[in-house]
User: Fold this.
Amino acid sequence: MSRSELSSVDAVIEQLAQHDYLADRGLATSIFLAAELQRPLFLEGEAGVGKTEVAKVVAAITGADLIRMQCYEGIDVSQALYEWDYTRQLLHLRTAEATGTAREADVDELEDELFTERFLIRRPLLAAIDHRSAVPPVLLIDEVDRADDEFEAFLLEALSDYSVTVPELGVFAAEDPPLVIITSNRTRDVHDALKRRALYHWVEHPSFEREVAILERKAPKVSAKLARQVASATGQFREMGMYKPPGVAETLDWANALHLLAQTDLTEEFVDATLGTLLKYREDQERARREGLGTVVETALGA
Amino acid sequence: MTTDLGEAKFESPAVERLATGFVHCLRSGGLTIPVGMTLRFTEALDAVGIVHRDDVYWAGRATLVSRPEDIAMYDAMFLAFFHQNGSGFNVRFEDEPESVPLGTDDGDGDGHGDDGDDEVLALRYSASEVLAEKDFAEFTKAELHEAQRVMASMRISPSMRTSRRRIPAGRGDRHDLRRTVQAAMRTAGEPLALRRTSMGVRTRRLVLLLDVSGSMEPYARVLIRFAHAAVVGRGRVEVFALGTRLTRMTRQLGSHDVDEAVAAAAESVVDWSGGTRLGEAIGAFNNDWGVRGMARGAIVVVLSDGWDRGDPAQMDAEMERLHRTAHRVVWVNPLKASPGYEPIARGMAAAMPHIDTFLEGHCLDSLATLADSIGA
Ligand SMILES: Nc1ncnc2c1ncn2[C@@H]1O[C@H](COP(=O)(O)OP(=O)(O)OP(=O)(O)O)[C@@H](O)[C@H]1O
Ligand SMILES: [Mg+2]
Assistant:
């Protein structure tokens, strides 16, 4: 498999940037290697560092379908892999009965008919492995830390050789495997075995300069000066040991809010008034106020 | 092509050797790296090439590290392996020193490139330069992490050379060693000969006594990480906390996860950030551990600002005892660097006559000096 858009680390950086995603070299290398070595990529990091977004953008730049599997507690094989469409199977039986075909046909034959691909509902994993498209899709397994251990074991099996078995139909194997991106917010540790199958990248909050650049791209109305101040202040808040350190989405929201309020520079008053856009938890807002918004603003003005 | 132990076809055996060597180095540093990962790392190196330092760094990160806790160790080992000439691999990267992702930024700034080993050295400096002289009391959390990496790459262990002096004169060191080994082989490990061998080459013990009282708070949080680096490094190291009482922290600091280790150590010290009775605590060390053998012939390093609420006469007496048992006593005082500093704090003044080496300890540079002094 070669996706020319991902043919080198630099190409990855450039292509992502063309889609307004500014990746650092580490993330870009891991994406390049995932494509090159045909390995799943495991992205771990705090909320809002851009894990989900990068998967979407990778799909966009390769022109591939994005198949997303959102994990949650209790997710099981029938939601992840495949399910038989019982309603349609039943309907098919009724029709056979009504038209009289049921009586003539062998019962076995009728049963065989029921378990054909016609009645198979392909869930994300099967859809991604048995994709039948020119460009293999990007399979995003989002927030795997929310699923249970058994589900991990099952994922591990499916990802180890990019094949799945449907007992009634046989084995589906990917000739051209999908690019699999697994994300985790690390609310719990995912099993080592699953990590071992994959390449791993710990996604950090963006550096100051990168965050300024992201603001320039994604909030173009915000002045360069305010963008620097916002990025500086956000960086400082992240250092305060928050329950939920602000992610890039929050930085963008905050910058836009300040801009809409016609602010050209940070002031303690307006930081205070808009703090809720940046820090979502009351405890975090209190912490920020305790540490002193004044000092944060002062430092940010010098950025 | 991607099965873990499939047939290996590499563009160059050098890549394979480099991968094997580096993985070995990481394992010796305490990282758990499953068997198949060397091959995967090699594949990654083949894909990105070994021309640019960053590419090698990130190829390893993507294939050999799978927990954020391991990153600091990986970074330290990467530096040690590729930049300290210890690997036997003369890897010359063609890009600029600034690009090693060691700082808190992404390390994608541009720089000037000259090549060769000088550059390698330049890199070690430039990477930590910014932080080198900054006072620990002003460190942010991110800088603390950065400092941790730098400390993890320091070699904090007494050298072996000094102890060889104990071998009786009249016999050349090498000759003696060779004969000892030969004798041991002949007798399948005859005890006396073996003991002499160990006397000849064993490193000295290093004992760190860290003041954890309130006044040391801004420094103790960094210095305990230095202690951790010493404990997980090579050598025989013991660490105690000095507060209103003495607490041994060696065991707690043994975990390779520095945050875990520091948390466990701090938890074990009931009077962390409390008061100090330095003389009494040092006395407790002398009585319970030091004089019984732990301090004998050891390098003892006291890390303290010398503020003491106890009796200076006791301090004087206990320091004298310590000095008599130990091979060398080093005092590290973070306040020493302040302009106009004089050791007039009562405890400090009482201790001064019993100290061999008096050092600063407020910044990374001064800890590097300390590490050198310990190894001297
Ligand atoms: N490097 C980046 N360049 C451009 N935009 C970014 C970058 N990182 C994050 N963003 C933006 O930040 C927002 C949050 O990212 P995303 O939802 O992907 O985060 P996440 O890591 O998946 O977080 P969560 O755990 O909350 O799902 C997205 O809207 C994305 O556009
Ligand atoms: Mg997400």
Q: What stands out?
A: The interface with chain A takes residues 1-2, 34, 36-37, 40, 43-44, 47-48, 54-55, 58-59, 61-63, 65-68, 71, 101, 104-108, 140-142 of chain B (CB under 8 Å). Strands of chain B lie at 206-211, 237-242, 246-248, 299-303, 328-333, 357-360. The CA atoms of residues 96 and 112 of chain B lie 6 Å apart. Residues 150-156+204-375 of chain B form a domain with the Rossmann fold fold (CATH 3.40.50.410).
